[in-house]
């Protein structure tokens, strides 16, 4: 049997709040929710999902990475058609734009709980 990606999970001190941010950003639907766990699905799809689990001692990673600091172990890449408009929409929802931007057609951002994510144009 071949493994398939069932979902990606982010640790956070407030799963419902972070799920609400990504639900608004992605337009995904809530599949389940309680104070310690929330799962979102793309409309009409069950998998892959995006989950949010309680992590009371969550420490956001440092960007760009530096030795001796909390390292980024994963991030979401979100493809958009209008980079500037989607960057501003993400900011209006509570995201922040990182000062260090390594590529022209990519925007490194942080969600409200400090997880890095990238917005990128097709072909970037």
UniProtKB/TrEMBL annotation:
Lineage: Bacteria, Bacillati, Actinomycetota, Actinomycetes, Kitasatosporales
Protein name, UniProt field: VOC family protein
Chain segments carrying region Disordered: 42-71
Gene3D superfamilies cross-referenced by the UniProt entry: 2,3-Dihydroxybiphenyl 1,2-Dioxygenase, domain 1
InterPro entries with a match to the protein in the record: Glyas_Bleomycin-R_OHBP_Dase (IPR029068), Glyoxalase_6 (IPR041581), VOC_core (IPR037523)
SUPFAM superfamilies on file: Glyoxalase/Bleomycin resistance protein/Dihydroxybiphenyl dioxygenase
Source organism of the structure: Streptomyces kunmingensis
Pfam families attached to this UniProt entry: Glyoxalase_6
VOC domain mapped to chain residues: 4-124
């Amino acid at each position: 049997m071949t493994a398939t990606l069932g979902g990606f999970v982010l640790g956070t001190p407030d799963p419902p709040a972070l799920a609400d941010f990504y639900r608004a950003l992605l337009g995904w639907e809530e599949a389940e929710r309680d104070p310690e766990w929330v799962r979102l699905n793309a409309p009409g799809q069950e998998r892959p999902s995006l989950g949010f689990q309680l992590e009371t001692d969550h420490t956001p990673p440092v960007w760009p990475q530096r030795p001796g600091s909390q390292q980024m172990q994963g991030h979401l890449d979100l493809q958009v058609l209008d980079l500037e408009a989607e960057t501003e929409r993400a900011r209006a929802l509570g995201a922040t734009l990182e000062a260090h931007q390594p590529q022209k057609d990519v925007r490194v951002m942080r969600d409200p709980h400090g997880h890095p994510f990238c917005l990128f144009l097709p072909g970037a």
